[in-house]
Amino acid sequence: MQPAAGSDRSDGGERAFLVFPRFTGLKPQVGRTASQAREARLLRGARDQAGLLEPRQSLDAQAAGAEDRFDMGTTRLEAEDESAEFRELAESAGAQIVGEMEQRRSRPDPATLLGSGKVEELAGAAAAADAGIILVDYDLSPTQLRNLEDALPCPIVDRTQLILDIFARHARTREGQLQVELAQLDYMLPRLTGRGSAMSQTGGGIGTRGPGETQLETDRRRIGRRLVILRRELERVRRVRHQQRSRRESAPVPTVALVGYTNAGKSTLFNLLTGAGVLESSRMFATLDPKLRAIVLPSRRKTLLSDTVGFIRNLPHSLVTSFRATLEEVEKAEVLLHVRDAADPLSEEHKHEVEKVLGELDVLGKPRIEVFNKMDLLPASEQAALLDGDTVGVSALRGVGVERLLAAIDAALVGDPLEEAELWVPQSAGEVLASLERGGTVSERSFEARDGADGVLVRATAPRSLLGRWQQYRVDGKGPVARDRSGKRTRKPEPEPERAE
């Protein structure tokens, strides 16, 4: 990959100058309505220009007055946390940070975001630092991007494009790669008018990974056609995945999904519970493609545990909708484990950010266990204050608290209790035995022929819902046609009378 003009990769990182706009006059954003509406207006305007929709008013006119994209921190601690988080994003994208600038003003400047005086100051500072790229902790409008590129000595990458670049680095599955390219094109299309010379090369540095830049500047209609092709291919890949999921769900093994703010320790906890070798990294979005492993709970119930992408503040709504596959395990899970960093002074604020994304996925009503990780970093008095009946404290690094966590998961799944059953499975119904082994525990088995057919007599412990699928094979008096041990049919047992409460 060739570096962007003016960058220096001799030390392995692109020289980046960071800009932190802080707008004190913006009201805290509630929900996602305003952000979602702005993204929709931007995309509609881009598709207008690409010839995908009927002509409408200009993109910037549609976006006017909608600079409520971010809920900026109102306290110094929150502002410092936001800045530290953006530095982590930059480093995760491979940047070498060579300078920073913060500006606090009441509202964004519609033309340049920062105001002409600050832009001039930024141009001098970036040139003095020999920066090859400027990273802005904000989402830029097409006009702001164009004006900044005209005034500054190097390419500009905003927050969403930086996140997409990191996603492009970490996507490993074909579906993940398709999702990244689709999201990149959707986001870049309305901003093509502001690219100028920064779009003259294919490949390049931060913010240019994925679809080639020449493709983006050459022909809007061509990009529109590429979007259609990507969506069709993505749909084909999803159909295959849904077929695989359907086969998995033939044995209804419950799924438990790990969710949480980035770097809360989800992957470390996942490895502890499953014994898997999933990459543990402090880099943001190191876990992009979902990972599933089986675990056995104290009740002997088998459960699938899913590790998912970490959330961050102001996660763009377009990314949430684009990466439905990445987050699908959260939607399908019976129980959510919300992993929180017990030592994080902004744990409550980060909890709020996670819940905003869960709200977008419409899963806030699912059973949820709050898991405070890194408890070993707190004194005993603070540990006691955090824990109550609905929370569990662990140290994933030291392996402390695992038993209580597994018991809590067991308790959350009691809506589908385990039962022991005896079944005779004919040789022609091998999928029955396979599903019992996947979703439960087969403790005894013996080969036995009945009515001239070969089969296996098994004793299994499994969730009631799974045993209900194979009632016709039960020989313990609980099936629709009961059999004695010799295999002869007997009278179907009368249902037991309901007990009075």
The CATH architecture of the largest domain would be 3-Layer(aba) Sandwich
Helix fraction bin: 25-40%
CATH class descriptor of the largest domain: Alpha Beta
Return the average pLDDT rounded to an integer: 77
Query: How many angstroms separate the termini?
Result: 72 Å
Identify the overall geometry.
Answer: elongated
Counted beta strands? 13
Structural class designation: alpha/beta
Work out the oligomeric state of the chains in this entry: single chain
For the CA atoms, what is the radius of gyration?
A: 28 Å
Portion in beta strands: 15-25%
Q: In CATH, what is the homologous superfamily of the largest domain? A: GTPase HflX, N-terminal domain
Write down the secondary-structure element order. Answer: EHHHEHEHEHHHHEHEEHHEHEHEHEHEEH
Total helical segments: 17
Q: Which blocks of ≥5 consecutive residues have pLDDT under 50?
A: 1-11, 28-73, 194-202, 481-501
- Assign the CATH topology of the largest domain: Rossmann fold
For the sheet with most strands, the description reads: 6 strands, mixed
Q: What is the total domain count? A: 3
**If strands are numbered along the chain, what order do they take across the biggest sheet?**
6-7-5-8-9-10
